[in-house]
Amino acid sequence: MRYAFFALPLIALVALVAVFAFTIDRDSSLVRSVLIDKPAPRFALAPVEGLDVPGFETATLAGEPTVVNVFASWCIPCRDEHPLLEALKADSGVRLFGINHSDAPENARAFLAELGNPYDAVGADRDRRVSIDWGVYGVPETFLVDAEGVIVYKHVGPLTPRAIVEELLPAIEKARS
Predict the structure, then answer these.
(1) What is the pLDDT of residues 72-128, one digit of tens each?
(2) Which residues are paired to 33 by β-bridges?
(3) N or C, where is the chain less crowded by C-beta within 10 Å?
(4) Considering the entire predicted model, what is its pTM?
(5) What are the phi and psi torsion angles at 52 (to 5°)?
(6) Residue 2 in domain
(7) pLDDT at 75
(8) Number of domains making up the chain
(9) What is the DSSP string of 118-163?
(10) CATH number of the domain within which 44 lies
(11) How far apart are CA 118 and CA 99, in angstroms?
C-alpha cells in the first residue's frame, strides 16, 4: 500500500509527459470550431454608423460563398492582415463581409478610411454578442460560409499569404463548386 502512494505521482507524471509528447508537433493556430459544417448562427448586425456599406444578417449570407472577417480598429494584427484582405477581394472576387468587433463607429470608419474598405458589408458588433455566438476567441478571425449559409472554414489569427493560398482559396473554390 505504501508503494502505491509513491507510485501515483510517478504514473501521473508519465501520463502528462505522454500527452505533451503526442501533441508537441500540433499546429498551434488550429482551433477547432464546433460550428464547422453547421449553419451560421442567427444574427442581425446594423451597419457601422456613417460607413457607406450596409450591415448584414444571417439570411444575407445565403446565395454565394462569403468570407466573414472579424476585425477591430484597435487590433494590431488586423492592421497587418488588412492588405491581404484587399488582395483577396481583388484577386478572387469573393464576397467579403466584416464584423466590426467591440469598436466605436468613428474608430472603425477611420480604420477603413486609412487602410481601404474591401468589405461588401460591415456589421457593428459593439456588445460582442454576435462574435460570441460565432465562437470568436479574439480578433482577427476569418470564416468561410458556403452558399447554403453553412460555415465551412475558420482561421484564427491574422491571415497569412500561405494560409490564403493553401487553405482559404481552396476552400472558396470548393464552396463555389
Answers:
(1) 999 999 999 999 999 999 999 999 999 999 999 999 999 999 999 999 999 999 999
(2) none
(3) N
(4) 0.83
(5) -90, 20
(6) no
(7) 97
(8) 1
(9) --SEEEEETT-HHHHHTT--SS-EEEEE-TTSEEEEEEES---HHH
(10) 3.40.30.10
(11) 13
